[in-house]
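Progress against Task 2.4 (sequence-to-structure conversion) is shown through the following example record, which the project officer requested during the mid-term review.
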Amino acid sequence: RATVSRQVRYLQPECGGGKSMRYLKMFAVMVCAVALLVPCAASAAVKVGDPAPEFELPVWGSDASFKLADMKGKKAVVIAITQSACSSCRTELDLLNNYVGQGDLEVVTINVDARGGTEKWNGLMTQIVKDAGWKMPVLVDPKYSVPRMFGVRATPGLIVIGKDGTIKAIEIGFVPGEDNESFSKIVEAEK
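Structure tokens generated for the chain above:
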């Protein structure tokens, strides 16, 4: 409680400026500096109809990597943005697993766990993938770089890229039953 009252007191202007005014000015300068240094995600994110940004990520459990450019003109790509502790992500991946290996469609998941690639995480992923029976490649992106390119700020996220390399859908969140119909239509249209 004492800490809170001290912080509040520093932010209250005093007559004549004083110490608290200096803190307030320093705080304002720091906020402005951060705002200038951090790029605006909304303006940088792509939208449906835009060409998909190129990326390459390692495939978990192998020495291979996945390059989006390799799919252009050959296959449509469905990308699920997931975390290992996300139950909605797992439900969505269970549904996506039904589309693996069908037609001209490549289904991948990008796991964005911050601890991705560590020994403990590898053990957890091995168990999750084994228990679920998922057949799609799991890409590792602990820095959240690819989801940021597409403006996906939460998990689960879903991105559909057409054979022509353009973005057909970007969805955030998953509600079983509600999203299934629209998702199935998107995936079927891309086959």
